[in-house]
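Following up on my earlier thread - several people asked me to post the actual chain instead of describing it. Fair enough. Here it is, all 544 residues.
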Amino acid sequence: MVKRPRITAHNETARLAARLRLAGCRVAAAAALLAAAGCATAPKAQRDRWPDHAHGVVFEDRDADGQRDPGERGLSGVAVSNGRDVALTDFYGRWHLPCDDDTIFFVIKPRGWCTQVDGLQLPRFHYIHKPGGSPSSKYAGVAPTGPLPESIDFPLYRRHEPDRFRVVLFADTQPRNQQEIDYVAHDVVEELVDVDAAFGMTLGDILFDDLSLFDSLNRTVALIGRPWYNVIGNHDTNMDTTEDRYSDETFERIYGPPYYSFDYGRVHFLVLDDINWMGGGEGRRSYAGGLGPEQLEFIRNDLALVPPDRLVVLTMHIPIYEVEDREELFRLIEDRPHVVSIAGHMHFHENRFLGADDGWKGNEAHYHLVQGTVSGSWWSGAPDELGIPHTTMRDGVPNGYSIATFDGHRMSIAYKAARRPADYQMNIYAPEVVPAAQAATTPVWANIFAGSDRSRVEMRLGRSGPWVEMERTDERDPAYLRLKELEVGPQPPPGRKLPRAMRCPHLWRANLPAHPAPGTHLIQVRETDLFGQTHRANRVIRIE
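Reply from S.P.:
Thanks for posting it. Predicted structure:
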């Protein structure tokens, strides 16, 4: 598999920097040593020496005008990449990197600094070099950029970044048209305006094939009022191309590089492009999960500059266990004590722990979150009182998003159902009426939206009954099955049909206790999840 094969120059800067870091050198001292070793950019003499390289400066933009003015100092020890190599700026903030006619340069934002954010809350941390522009396609790519500038300068701005912060995680907003963008607005954006979070991220399938809708959706999400990063998904690609290297031209025009990294607080975020586009044109849509050698080389060089005690968060669209070259990626991260990964794509919500069967060789299982989607089941199902489809996902989970909380190298995730209270974390299913003689054989199910094999789930009848541990089962969600039955009934509900039910990865079951007294009773269920968070829910039944 080949993924965007553009730059072949070997990168020694990151390797030397890593050795300096391990030797205990401070960043500024390391940058000075790198300059002495010939790794940093000097003015014209070195531009003449490396004519096929790009050059520039990372600087503190004190007046926030986006331009380097006299007196605005360069910043040393900041990483810059061309999508494969990673270089540290020298004492004066200068960098140089190999270049060809299809290269995106980007600064890797360090802690305590921020990049420019445009009027749509999109971070601007890159420069695209495509002298001839993108190839012709149905949706416009990058216009011709002309000759390489003499200096590509990246402004940074000081910002306080605490150890503890929150991030909003969207997956698969995936509107087909403006009406479904309006669903996104009313279902999730309105309740998130001015949310207590450092930034947000959409984990791919931002749209559903119609790339002309990027601007409208971006304007909608921007109303949340937080910087918003984006991951490329398989429905965000230029599908009329036959080559993977040209499949993300429109994405690049709108958002910039399809893969990149940045620091916030004490966390290093790696945003990956794991869509390997293999065919396009009318009637042909072929892709697989893959990273490719160039992106893997970037990850290797990027991580060489990240201290081993940092939490590394990999974000992607296709789940990591479906990526064809995942073992090459695993070899780069499995020795780190703090590393997690997050994806979308599947239209269900699941916490997974990957081990030897998945190709993982780390001492402990690798935590991977498959994030439930904003679009749920692709905006399917009967509309509610606001005209928005209920769009329940095929695991029985309502559509929604997550709030991730980071504190040093620790992370916790809280799922949030759209337009529901934050404590709505499960559904309990039981009959309305149960004969007392049949109670001991009557099952109660609990679908714990963010449950996992590390959850402890218990049930009791009444406020003072004994807690009984519920057993995890691989059945299908009972309520979702009833929704599917209605679709084939004599009066099917309006809206698109839901997808087939799946075996739910977070469903628990237990029978009612024997010989309960007749009357109206309360079923209580409580769950303690893998992060130590406790959730409770109630259901009322009658025993006769």
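Confidence is low (pLDDT under 50) at residues 1-50. That should answer part of your original question.
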